[in-house]
User: What shape does this take?
Amino acid sequence: MASGKIPGVRNVSKKEARELSKLPWTADDEVLSQIGQARVLPDGRVLLCDLADGSGTLFPSRAAAEEMNRRCAETERQAAMQTAGLRRPDIETLLPPVDDFLRDVEAHAQSLGPRLRIPDEVLDFSPASLGAVDRALKRIPWAERQVPDLVTPLVAYIGEVLRRASGGRWVKHSRKDYVSVCDPDELLALWAAKRKLGPSARAAADKAKAEATARGASAYDADVAYSLAGQAIMAQAPEVKSRVEEREDNEPVIVASNRQSFQPFAIVFVPMVEPSKRLPLRAAVETALIGSGYRAA
Amino acid sequence: MLQMPGEHCGVAEGNGVYHCCQGLVCEDPSTGQPLVLGSNHMGFCTGAVQCPPPQPPNWQPLTTVKLRWIAAQNGIGAGQTGIQQSRTIGVEFEKWVLTTIGVYPAPPNPGRNTMSFMSQARKTKTGGLPASVIPEYVTFQYILNPPSMLVFPKSVFYEVKAVTNPITLGTSNWQTYGLLDVARQAMPPGGLKAAPAVIFITTGSTTVSTGVVAQANDPMWNVAIWQVETYYDANSPNPSNPNLSLGKPQCLNPGVYGGTLLKPITGSWPASQLTSPTTPSAMLVVPGDPDPAEVD
Assistant: This one.
């Protein structure tokens, strides 16, 4: 699956979207069927006004829009698998089974040096040694880090650093949660139906709100009228049969001597997904230690 | 914690910071000189006590400026600058919030969410990556289906934000847009209609933009937006590390509940210091309150 950015695609403000929409565009329900109705401009560019505030996304060509639509279809399928309770948690795909991980944790931690080509003597399980890990990781693009043979030794090593600095111990943390289980294809059909119903639902909701306001209804009551009218249209979408199941997730965590806890998998994995959470591992671990009442060095 | 003459003071490893009452000096027993707090040593309070009578809390919005100041006073982000320092302070704030609402420590509490959720909407806006979100905490809520209550799995998404600017759809590389998108994918049981919720726990005075609320209100989305702001005690006897407190949860678009209000979050948490958050004795994150309460 191609994952790089599609050249020339950019987000446009409400004002620019409004200006572009003054051109003689033609509506196209197919080219961006995963997302919403497209406006094909006279020069072949494709405008998508997908936000409630009127702003949107501009594609340089029909081909670029079609590529985005294809990629979004793949993402939506993954999302449907997840909502349907069929996608494995990230921790299960990136770490060995928790009992195996805990049994072999020292060996996993010691495999970090060879994996990142850091001499063994540098990796002395001190928070400061994570500086060398941060430097070595810079050679690996973020998009290539979500692989088991990197995440597993990283989680093991960071956990060991935290364990030693906090006088703690590894623990298998089990938690129960609920998931909806359903047929992902039914879910995809539901979402497609909702996209088709969207414009008429918005129109009905706007009309109901305007009527309520004209009657002198309060802002809250007008909002309720808006919501109920919109949902009445959305109720035409096909129903999905689902059931609720209880699932158990397991995670290796460190319980410190003062009963605070650390989640080394979260320290490693969250920044891989969320750029705004990116911190050098050394800073992340030192902050976790200080915040839990321990010295970082 | 304020100490009296003869009592210990300084940084106790694993147990936080002990300050002396006003008028006292924290003295290093080996040198007889005042102890520098944050140096991981213990001393003893000496001098004549002048502690004022305790005042009732005076809760004021915890701005990001105040949060930074408190962090600096307590050695958080020391030696760091720029975005790294901001993120370090953000991590500490996040830890305080998650401990306060009963997510940490894990165990016995559930811990920070580590599952990513795919978002087609975020992918469209970022042009590729990030194409998912990883909310701090994800839980279920109950929906009333007389005479029973049904579980609505993975329908409440918490995000902690220490930001000055308003939270918009585009905040943090379209993270907010992605959060709304994954929330709308939640699947209510039994074909019932129910609104999933995104709960922003923020610094004080942080606003959620009207664009976020408008998007959440869209009939195709129908996601409830809640906000909980953070306050600090301006009357704290320990001004460099005052107690922080979470305010009352506010639903920013109660209309999505169609006239009834499901409360996916309760509003009673202990106050505590940034550097030593208090974990409730019992799990305080109550995932769903079936009582159809009044509109706030």
Remarks:
- Chain A touches chain B through 98 residues (CB under 8 Å).
- Chain A has a mean pLDDT of 93.
